[in-house]
Input
Amino acid sequence: MYFLRRLMVIACAAVVAASTAVAESQFYPSHAITMIVPFAAGGPTDVVSRIVAEHMAKALGQDIVIDNIVGAGGTIATTRVARAANDGYTLITGHMGTHGAAVPLYPNLAYRPDADFEPVALLAGTPIVIVARKDFPANDLQQFVAYLKANTATLNVAHAGVGSVSHVSGELLNSILNIKPTGVPFNGTAPAMKALAAGQIDYLCDQIVNVVPQINAGTIKAFAIAAPERNPALPEVPTTAEAGLPAFQVQAWNAIFAPKGTPAPIIAALNAAVGKALDDDEVRNRLLALGSVIPGPAERTPEALMALVRGEIAKWTPVLGHAGK
Ligand code: ASP
Output
């Protein structure tokens, strides 16, 4: 009898939990969602977020407010979101740095990328491009590498803070070339790119989304794309393999995460909204024009994003365990 009663209590609790989750999803979203971008406005993470969020907001019937919270290579904002209410109203656009490379670079990182978030969906792959100020004394990657090696002591490389994609990519390039230029941190690669275009910084390894508009405007030069293939948005730019530096390969990306414990129906609603955005012609064209690689259906699931995060942590931990300290 006791056993039976106990069973009923458990069953009732399960029904209540399930119906609460359903109720939450039926009323979700009932007000604006905040999407935190952990870097400066106008940079690649920000631009990709805004393009996709604009369409998601239409699909969800509520505004998505972008909030740029910068600092410490994106880890300040990411910590904040890890601790935010898990009600679907606070999200973050993370990337290969905040949700991968930051782990070995910050021994006291206050969040675990693979345990403190519900992955929502991958938004875009963003290949890395090596770019330099317009008057950098090199015309191709070989000349660039030779100049870097001969003049390391006087060169400045920009990045978006320790653990950012640009920092990690720059560290990888440094280790391949065995050089140690001076790193100059910014709050994102929007301000870094501005400094590069103004000639205040010598070079930068950045996500393609930030590079294409500057190349089109003729304000900087690009030496190579660190991907297996050329990108249709920058058809003139050779791959690192073509240009003689095959070891330099980095694939960055941006993706949405919610705090751990955000109800599954809410994650499903957000994931579906990302899917609709990525299937929309206008969104696709805007992303493709900036060189983004749009994930196919199999890469858009929360499970695929979790696998990507785990893969990045495993990949970068041995490479970066000693860097940035
Ligand atoms: N691309 C930047 C990075 O290096 C971040 C940004 O501004 O989006 O991580």
